[in-house]
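Would you be willing to look carefully at the protein I have copied below?

:::
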Amino acid sequence: MSTSHVLLGLLAAGPRHGYDLKRAHDERLPQAKPLAYGQVYSTLGRLERDGFVEQHGQDREGGPDRTSYALTDAGRARLTEWLTSVEPPAPYVTSTLFAKVVVSLLVTDSGTTTDYLVAQRAAHTARLRELTAVKTDRSATVSDIAAADYAIAHLDADLRWLQVTLLRVAELHREVNA
């Protein structure tokens, strides 16, 4: 995820200060890792340095001064460019799960790898149940449901891969240790 582009998108509706941007990010991207305040402010600093946002004023809502930021024309153009560019499919497998299974095949026996795959499948299945419950929760927002759908699709793909790999553990173990 590109934090800078998400912040530009959140600023598209109008000026906001860092606290409000963090809160909006965490509300609108409910399954994403929450942003730290430091990350918001350091990203805003880089966006300001690069001419994509500018300070819009300060307010004090019962606390310290808060600087509001607004998109510049360059920032709006950068956001539009990002929103219209197609993301290329990932050229490499960068999953920790995949790496862990390969390393397990290299350094342990078939039984240990199988035990790991079974445990991982159980964890994925439990998470799948949690996400399915989110989709039927009457208080779930459209953002919650969209995030759950996305995560469910990825978990489903992982579960299918785990099952195929479980069926091939002995063969894969022989191949990597040949």
User: Anything to note?
Assistant: The mean pLDDT is 88. The radius of gyration is 22 Å. The first strand starts at residue 16 and ends at 17.
